[in-house]
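Human:
Take a look at this sequence-structure pair and walk me through the C-alpha cells.
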Amino acid sequence: MNKIKNKTKRNFIQLMAAVLANGYVIGYHRGKIFTGGSKAFCVPVLNCYSCPGALGACPIGSLQSVLGGYERRIPFYVLGLLMLFGIFLGRVVCGFLCPFGWVQDLLFQIPSKKLSVPKKADRCLRRLKYAVLGLLVILLPLLVRDAFGFGETWFCKYVCPAGTLGAGLPLLLKNESLRQAIGALFGWKAAVLAIILLLSVVIYRPFCKYLCPLGAFYGLFSRFSLYRLTVDEKRCVGCGLCEKTCKMGVEVRKEINSPECIRCGDCVEACPEKCIQRKCG
C-alpha cells in the first residue's frame, strides 16, 4: 500500500512539474513557441526552448548556446543555476521534476517482459552520459566553429529526444511548412526518440541511465547534496529488499547516495525495518 501511495504521489508531482514548465497551452494550438520574458530564465530540467508550451529555457540548450557564441563567454548564470539545484536537490530533479523522466516512468508501467542489462555492460553504458556532457554539450560547441565563428548546439541538434518529443513533433503537427522541410536530420532524431521510447517499456529510464547529460551533471552532487538518503546500519537486517526494489540499480547498502540515485523513494518504502530515511540539510 505504501509503495502504491509513493508512486501515486510521485506521478502527481511529475505531472504538476510538467504542467508548470509547459504552461503556455495556447502555444500547442497555434503551433508557435512562447517568447515572453520568462524565456530568459532556465528551468532545472530538460525542457526544450522550442516546445510550444515552454515558459522557460532548457539549461543544457542554454549552456551550449553560450559556449558556442561568438564571444566564447563562460555561462556563469546557467552553471550557477545548475550547481544550485545540484547542491540542494541532487538528482531529485530527475526523479520528481523532469517531464521526459516522467514519460519513461509511464512507459515502463506498460505490462511487458522487462529486460535486465548485464552488470558489466550496464556499468560501461552508464559512463556514456558523462561523455555526452563533456563532448556534445561542452567541448564541441566550444571548439568547433562555423565560418562565422559560431558553434552548434550539438546535443540539442543531433540527440535530444526530449526536444523531439516536446518541440519537434508538436510544431510539425501544426505547421505544414515545417512538414514540407523535413529532412534526414529529423528522421535521425525521430529514430533516436523511437528507440528510447521503445526501450523505456522494457528497461527502466534508459535515457536517464545512459545518455542524459543533465542527469550526469546532477549526479556529481549526489554524495553531498542537502537532500539525501541515509541508512541506519544498526537497524538494517541485510534483507536486500531495498536493492531488489531499486529500478536504477543502486547498491543501496553500499552507496545509497550514488550518482545514479534519482531519490524516487522506492527503497524507503520497501525497507521493512524503516532504516532508510530522507534527510535535508
About this structure: The first strand starts at residue 227 and ends at 231.
